[in-house]
Amino acid sequence: MRVPDFVRLLARRLWPYHRALLAGLWVLVQLLFLGKFHGPHSANDSSRYLAYAANIAECGYFEPGHNLRYVLYPLFQSLWLWLGLGWWGIVAGQMAVSALATRAIYRGTRRLAAGQSGAAALATLLFIAWPDIQQFNVFLLTESLFISLLALSFGAFTRLQRGRPRDWALLIVILVLTVLARPNGFMVALAAALAGLDALRRAPDRRPWRAALLALVLLSPLLWLALNHQLATYYLMDTYQRGELIFRYQLWAVHQAAPLQMPPNGTGPVARVLYFAAHNPIYLGRLMLGKLFVFVSYLKPHYSLAHRAVGVLVLWPAYWLAGRGARRASIWQPARVFLAAVFLLQTAIVMLTVDDWDVRFLAPVLPVVFVLAALELQRLWKASIEAETPQSAALHSVPKPCLPAGPRL
Prior knowledge:
This protein is mostly helical. Helices cover 68% and strands 2% of the residues. A hairpin with a 2-residue loop joins strand 1 and strand 2.
C-alpha cells in the first residue's frame, strides 16, 4: 500500500503541532456538543442520579439496592451540587476528567509504541472525534465518568512497565473508582487481574502462578457470592423470555420454537442463568449471537443510514486491525491482554444480559479498540514506507551516463 505523497507532505508540516491540534479539536468538540444539546443534557436515568446526588449532598444518605451499584456517579454529582454549581458544575467536572482521560489515551498508546507518536495521535484523534464517546460529557449520565475512568485505567496500566510502587498505587485507586462507577465496572479490574495472571504464567518461577491459582480456588465461594450480588437486581429471565436483543425493543427479537424451561423459584441469580442455559441451549445460543451482532455491528435499528455507514466504514476495519494488534509480540503483552480482555468481557456481559437502544455499552470499550487498531496501523504504515525505501534508493543509484573527461589540473 503506497502512501500518497501529499499525505506525507501534509503530515510533515502539521506534525510538530499535532498535540496542540488535538487539544484544540477536543475543545471544539466539547463546545459543539454543548451547543447541540443547549448545555447540560438530562436524559433517561438522569433524574434518578440527580435525586440520589441531592440526598447525598443534603443529608449524606446513600440509597441501598440497585442504585448503590452506581454510587460513584451520584457521589461525583453531589460534590458539584454541594458547591452550588448545579448541572453546569457537573458537566464541567465531567469534561475535566475527560481531558485527563484523553491525555491518558495519548500517553498510554505512546508508551506501547516505544515512544513513537503516530499511533498515539491516531488513537487520541479517534477518541476525540468519535461522536458517541464525547457527547456523553454533556449528559447527566454515568457514561462520561465511566469512559474516562476506563481510559485512565489504561493509561495507569501502561505505567506499570516502569515498575514503580506509586504507579501500582495509582492503578489500584483508579480501578477501585471504576468498579464503583457502574455495575459492570468490575470487568476492568478483572481484565487487569487476567493480565497479571498471564504474566505470572509466563514467568520463569512458577511458584507465584501456582499460588495465584490456589488463591482463586480458595476465594471461589466469595466470588460466587459477589457475582450473585451483582445480578440480584437484574431480571434476566424476563428479557430471555421476551427474546430481547435490545432492551424493551420487540421488533428485533428472537422467538422460541418451543416452550422454554424456566428455573424453579428460589434459585439464585447465577444458578438461574446456568439452569436456563442447560435446558434451553439452542434458544440461548441464538439469543446471545443476536446480541453479539447488535452490540458490535453498530447497526442500531433507529440510526440513520449515514450513522450506520460511518460505523461500518470505520469500526469494522478497526475491529480487524485491533484483532491483529492484539496478537503483535512487539506490543507489551500485559497491555495486549488487558485491552483485549476489557473488550471481550464487556461483550460477554452484553451477550448474557441485553444491549441498549444506543451505544452506551459499546462506547466505553471503543477506546481499547482504537488503541490496538492505531498500533497496528502504525506498524503497517512503517512497513509500507520501508518497502518503498529500497525502490527509492534504487532509483537514486542508477549510474549516470559517461561524459568526456575534462583536462586534468
